């Protein structure tokens, strides 16, 4: 997989790129000087069609944002792909579930064969440290990350509830409790961390449920690119 250090790219491109990524944009809006951190901790990855982007069972502290193309999420990947559970589209964050729960990757993510180009940005969160350690990463940056994580996972869960209203996980969905204290404080950070872990745990249950649902694979397992192309041309 080809990688490019973001710090080596033209500044105007970097600024435009960072403004398209909610986590980084939110952090920069609150604290412009944090741009140096994301500049040095981030890389752009270019994957080939069919290439494995994340492999189940591995461990790292990276999170990612898809910029171009489409990614496919499989709970298992041995000799062949099986049980497609989700797609990742441009603008979406991925890889955060394992980071939030401090676990190995629980799914394999593959670049879609139907895409000619797949680009995504990755940021190494190794320097985040303990939740109350602000020696490298500031309070506002951590809050921005957890806000983005909560928003992202809640959006996925809402889509699943619409697609699968009869699934028992719908009735067991965790409740989102709005934060009522003073914003941009340690108290809000701890609240967001707790919410993100709760939603990440529930999202993992959904992934396991869909992994065992053969009907989901039949309905979502293939993107009919050629059929869509023919319809558009007709």
Keywords:
single chain, 234 residues, alpha+beta, Jelly Rolls, five-stranded antiparallel beta sheet, four-stranded antiparallel beta sheet, 11 strands, disordered C terminus
Kindly state the percentage of residues in helix: 40-55%
The ordered string of helix (H) and strand (E) elements is EHHHEEEEEEEEHEEHHHHH
By secondary-structure content and strand pairing, the structural class works out as alpha+beta
Radius of gyration, taken over Cα atoms and rounded to an integer in Å? 18 Å
What is the overall number of helices? 9
Flag low-confidence runs.
214-234
| Name of the top-level CATH class | Mainly Beta
Largest sheet: 5 strands, antiparallel
Q: Count the beta strands.
A: 11
Approximately what portion of the residues adopt beta-strand conformation? Answer: 15-25%
Biggest sheet: strands side by side, in what order? 1-2-11-4-9
Oligomer: single chain
Overall pLDDT score? 84
Identify the overall geometry: globular
Q: What is the end-to-end distance? A: 37 Å
Structure description:
- By secondary structure, the chain is α+β, with helices and mostly antiparallel strands.
- The protein has one domain: Sandwich (Jelly Rolls), CATH 2.60.120.10.
- It is 44% helix and 19% strand.
- It is built from nine helices and eleven strands.
- It has helices spanning 11-19, 22-30, 35-41, 96-101, 139-163, 168-171, 186-211, 214-220, 225-233, and strands at 2-5, 42-47, 52-54, 62-68, 71-74, 76-77, 81-82, 86-88, 93-94, 108-111, 118-124.
- The strands form three sheets. A five-stranded antiparallel beta sheet has the order 1-2-11-4-9.
- A hairpin with a 3-residue loop joins strand 6 (76-77) and strand 7 (81-82).
- Helix 2 packs antiparallel against helix 5 (139-163) and helix 5 (139-163) runs parallel beside helix 7 (186-211).
- The longest helix is centred in the last third of the chain and has 26 residues, at 186-211.
- It is globular, with a radius of gyration of 18 Å.
- The N and C termini lie far apart (37 Å).
- Mean pLDDT is 84; it is low at 214-234.
